[in-house]
Each structure stands twice: as C-alpha cells, then as structure tokens.
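Researcher: Let's continue the batch. This sequence belongs to GRAM domain-containing protein, and it's 193 residues. Same format as the previous ones, please.
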Amino acid sequence: MALNIPLLQAPDAPGGRIPSPFTGEVYILSRTAMELAYTDATHRRSSAAKGVLFMTTQRLVFLPEDPAKAGYASIELPFRGMTGEHLHQPIFSCNNLTASCAYYDGMPFTGELSYKIVFKNGGIGVFLPLFNRCLGAARQAAAAAGGGGWGGGGGGGSPPRAPRQTRGPTSGARATCRAPLPPSTRPTRRACT
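Model: Same format as before. Here are the structure tokens for GRAM domain-containing protein:
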C-alpha cells in the first residue's frame, strides 16, 4: 500500500492522469464514479473520496477527483499484499469490495490498511473476474517465489519497498490480458429490423 505514487499526464484518460507503470505491468481497466474509504490503526476516513479506479496486472490504484479534499493524490493497493477480500452486494445500495492491504516501507500507516471500494455506476460484472484473475496470479507468483506473504497475511517477512517505475509488459501480463472474458461481459451487437 502506498500513498501519492508517481502519476503520468494522459489527456484522454479519466481525470487526465494515470499511474506510472511498473516493470511488466499492463493496464487492464479503469472505472469512473467510484468511492474509496479506508481505515488503518491510527486514522479513519470519515467520508469516502470519489474518483477513478485503475486496475493493472499488479495493483489497484485510486485517484480522487479532488486530491486536496481527499488528503492524497493517489493510493495504491497492490495485489501481492491483499487479504480478506469480500464482495458485498446489498439489496438497497451499491456493490462494494472490502479488503485489507499491507503497507510499503516509509508510508504513514501502521499495521494493515482496510478499505472499501464502492461501485457507484455498476461495472462489477467485468471488474470481478479480472480482479480475481490478477489476485490469483499475484498469489501464485508470491508462492512460487517462496515469499509466502508479507504484512498481515501471516506469511512473515517485512513489507517490500515500492517497485521501480519502468515500462514493458511481461509474458504473464500479456497472457492475463489476452484471456477471454466470460460470455456475459462481451459486447453484444443488436440488429435493427
């Protein structure tokens, strides 16, 4: 987990900015009209910040619409440190995803950060299969590396330093993006008669 990560100017992106990519990272999707509220051992956000959520092959990144009001310009939630994820589908309000995430060294948080992402304009049908695929790939990579986990996941070890910012997708990232979406998420075409 990290606050105020480097951003790139992108005039055609929602909000005009995107997170600076890591080595081997590929952007998968972005969602506008999202809300994020978070809690850690020392601080609770009383009101959710509205903004844009980006999903990549390595992390979720939230960019608030009004950084001054939110108190941060961006917040990164890496798949590798994510635990306790749960999708809530309440009857009388918006779908939301709750989870916890470990922090990177040097961040102003203690322990794990718990967060809630609210889908104000829908989109969970496309988001969820991709989220599960990326989260599973991150966990497989962590298990293969023998790192187990870090942060509150019980795997031991200390939190990692934030990855370096560079470009260039790896074969694993390409495979994640090339995998077909479930039939219900493919665009449909209607013929008018």
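Researcher: Any comment?
Model: The beta strands are 2-3, 7-9, 17-19, 27-39, 49-56, 59-64, 75-78, 82-88, 96-101, 113-119.
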